[in-house]
Amino acid sequence: MSSQYAVSMRVPEVNAVDDVEASFVAGEPDALRRAYDAQGTPIYTLCRRSLGAEVAKDITQEIFASGWFARRQYDPSRGSLGGWLVGIARNKIIDQLRAQNRRPQLVNGETSVGTALLSPVEVDALADRLLLADAMAQLPARSRRMIELAFFEELTHLEIAERCRLPLGTVKSDIRRGLARMRRQLERAS
């Protein structure tokens, strides 16, 4: 797999994801901790890459607090909890970037306009990559592998069929169904 396209994904079991989402919506006592355990690392990474390490922890906490207080607005049928939290993160990061750019900062005794590590466009691109990784993680393993081979390793359908020892029609169907499922999930998330 080409390193420029490599996405590290930890694929939780579907029942565990459903349990976290259901308990989060219900407001169960350990739900926030479980949601943080499941989604804290990608959300923190998005914040750190966008805003820097010094504010990433605070913004990550704000995101989870906002998500917790707005949990009744989350609809699991429209997308994953991770995707919903990334949407909140995107908005919080953009708000923070705007605030930083409005607030003069002292640098070596001089006032200058603060610059963020990532622009709002780059934040959107990073959030989109996280949403895409989340959509990929929710695919069945075989469909996910077929899509990785086709798009990340740039193999033809015939090469995939030979490598996986599957009929060509099966490879094409798995890729088509996987892409359709990802499209539906990404449309629900946006």
Automatic annotation (TrEMBL):
UniProt keyword terms in alphabetical order: Sigma factor, Transcription, Transcription regulation
Pfam entry (one): Sigma70_r2
Signal peptide coordinates: none
RNA polymerase sigma-70 region domain mapped to chain residues: 42-103
RNA polymerase sigma factor 70 region 4 type domain segment(s): 130-182
A GO biological-process term: DNA-templated transcription initiation
GO molecular function: DNA binding; sigma factor activity
Family matches, as PANTHER family: RNA POLYMERASE ECF-TYPE SIGMA FACTO, RNA POLYMERASE SIGMA FACTOR SIGZ
Family under the similarity heading: Belongs to the sigma-70 factor family. ECF subfamily.
The protein's name: Unannotated protein
